[in-house]
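Fold it.
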Amino acid sequence: MIKNKSETLVFSVALNGYQWRYSHCIKSQKQYAKKMGYDYVVITRPLFTSLGVECCWLKLLLLKAALQAGYNNVLFVDADAFIQDDCPQLGSLFVAGKFIYMAHGFSGEINSGVMLVRNTPAAIKWFEQVLGAIETPVAESQGIGWGENGHVAHFAKSSSGFQLISDKWNNTHSKDMKDYIRHFNYGPLKNSFFDKMVHKIIFKVSKMLLKCDLNDTLQQGKKLSVVNRKLPALFNRVRRIYPQFSK
């Protein structure tokens, strides 16, 4: 365990090769946190996981754990998100009564690649609600085929604690935007041949590891059961390595 240096934690999860491919983005996140006086950690171990791309569910367990560890504010940023030098302090986003802040992605759906959470009892209950429903498919996951984004969007919409923020904080669609965080997810900004090939390889490997087709809606229940079974062990392993997520 460590003594928190700051009331705010910024963290990312960069496993299964993302720690190397997006090292420039991770560097920008670290610089932003240092500039603002926030704590920062990037999860790079274990190097590879049997959950493949579904390891993104880990962010929810870590967000909840960081709040329980005593942080007042926690910002999760995907490994492929670059924080600009002029990105403001997180406090500029705070609205009374709101505990989770996200923007829309290029698809028009809420995007969980950038999540700011404030520490309230309602926030803890919200994460418990989302995590408790892992094995229940939600409509928002259709068209995505993988990951926690559909569940996060589904439960955020019904929560009075959710605050929609400007997509300047999670720009997934415009090269010309004067943004604060540019997110090179699988959308208009991820347009290089190399990135597309890496994405396809990672998905093929994930399909083999999970033994199901991520894009087949009929197999979503099977995939979610595998995630629910394997996720706790990964979380416990990560928490032993990174003391920021322990009380």
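Residues 220-241 form the longest helix (22 residues).
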